[in-house]
Amino acid sequence: MDSAGSLETSLLLGPEDVPPVLEKNAAGRSPFLLTSDHYGRLLPKKLGDLGLPDSERARHIAWDVGIAGVAEALADRLDAHLVAQRYSRLVIDCNRPPGAASSIPVLSEATAIPGNEGLSQDDAALRRREIFDPYHRRIDEIIDARAHDARPTVLLSLHSFTPVYAGVARPWHIGTLYHRDTQLPPLMLSALRAEGDLVVGDNEPYAVSDITDYTIPVHGEARGLVNTGIEIRQDLIADQSGQRQWAERLARILREIEATLFGEVRV
Ligand SMILES: [Zn+2]
């Protein structure tokens, strides 16, 4: 895909690099639009390894471990459109306002990111132009097209969290993350709690804000969409079996929520 920005010369992504945006089930009929800001951990060839060993580039600071498998399986089960971003959050974090310190971090948890130190404004702008912007432009286009076709859109932003952060263990299996939406988060919370076997976080381990987030404030709240974020603990979705089980569980819950929101079940 070389649509966005094709008139400008690419200075970051080269012929060996894949496009940042990945889509699945673009014709899916579900009202849920799934996004995955931290789906991948690729690095553009030009950036090398950002000065990090493999072990650092494989852990949660680089991406949301396990969420890709959940997101794809959930898109299948719900017949939902998934739009995801393939490059590492260490290149540019697609869920941070550009310009924020955590957008292109020089430190993540306790790991220094040498390839992000002393970055020029031009190089930062390039990462935004070639990775961040195409992803968010595409989400915008999808929401526009659905609105044009009078199709409802419920935004579900999918994430995963590390079981231990900065030495502190997190007890939750899953959490909902939200700010201004008052419809979907309570439905999600009560459905997850009704499962009976889950420790459910209410805006834990993170809450959404305009300063620390981008996808929910910009695509969900500013456009008036019913929305929530979901965070699943990474050790539960580390392998295919866990990813499948969580996708099945979430698909069942979300179909019930869809019926509550829209008063009918799609056939
Ligand atoms: Zn995430």
List the helices and strands and how they pair.
Blueprint: E1 21-24, E2 32-36, H1 54-58, H2 67-78, E3 81-85, E4 107-108, E5 111-112, H3 121-148, E6 154-161, E7 164-165, E8 168-169, E9 174-177, H4 184-194, E10 200-202, H5 215-221, E11 226-233, H6 240-262
Parallel strand pairs: 2-3, 2-6, 6-11, 9-10
Antiparallel strand pairs: 1-3, 4-5, 7-8, 9-11
Bound molecules: zinc ion (ZN).
Residues 37-38, 64, 159 line the site of zinc ion (ZN).
What's the short version?
The protein is α/β, with parallel strands linked by helices. It is built from six helices and eleven strands. The strands form three sheets. It has a seven-stranded mixed β-sheet with strand order 1-3-2-6-11-9-10, sandwiched between helices. Strands 4-5 form a two-stranded antiparallel sheet.
Describe this structure as you would to a colleague.
- The chain is of the alpha/beta class and 267 residues long.
- The chain contains 6 helices and 11 strands.
- Strand 4 and strand 5 form a beta hairpin.
- Helix 2 crosses helix 6.
- The longest helix is centred in the middle third of the chain and has 28 residues.
- The structure holds zinc ion (ZN).
- Zinc ion binds next to loops.
